[in-house]
Amino acid sequence: MDEPIENLYFNWLCARVINMKPRRNEATYYDLLRKLHRTEFVWTVPGDDNRAEDGKELRKEFIFQAEIPDDPDWRILIGCSVLEMLIAFARRAEFQDSTPLPEWFWEFLTNLGLHTYDDSCFEEDFVELVLESFIWRTYAPDGNGGLFPIMNPPNDQRQVEIWYQFCEYLVDQDRLP
């Protein structure tokens, strides 16, 4: 293995949510995904530590699938990235309502307002502001600016664990089975 593990892992993560061989004139999102991966997901609400652990669990799956030696320092000690957290959470969301993982992932990015920032018009400063608002929960009380905007939320969404925001979002979007 000549390529650094982090590059292999980033490509493995990207393959979960984008077409790795885009067609001609198809937008690519490597700059956005790279920024998401370089930004640590910091949890501030109890229970969201589970989202970070879910994201870090992807590393075990990668190591197993890539058949490479485990490096506990890399797998355990490095914080969870926003990209890892979103992919792991999209997987949980897929299990809840059968919408495929990539569709959930891009719905999250749409709700954050990041879905239009492909490589041809990537604005790192803006993306950074959006991610700061998401991570530090300075978005609107109804969830606008976060992952799950809700029409009439029963609580200030900035104080609600991400899992429960998601559950309220499913109800709000009338997506329960």
Description:
- The chain is mainly α and 177 residues long.
- It has one domain (5-18, 27-172).
- The chain has helices spanning 5-17, 30-38, 49-66, 72-77, 82-97, 101-112, 124-135, 162-172.
- Helix 2 crosses helix 7 (124-135) and helix 3 (49-66) packs across helix 5.
- The N and C termini lie far apart (45 Å).
Keywords:
177 residues
Rounded mean pLDDT score: 93
What is the domain tally? 1
- Low-confidence segments, given as residue ranges, are none
Task: Characterize the main sheet.
Answer: none
Shape, please?
A: globular
| Rg result | 16 Å
Which structural category do the helix and sheet elements fall into? Answer: mainly alpha
Distance between the termini: 45 Å
Number of helical elements = 8
Say how many strands there are. 0
Strand content: under 5%
State the helicity in percent bands: 40-55%
Give the ordered list of helices and strands.
HHHHHHHH
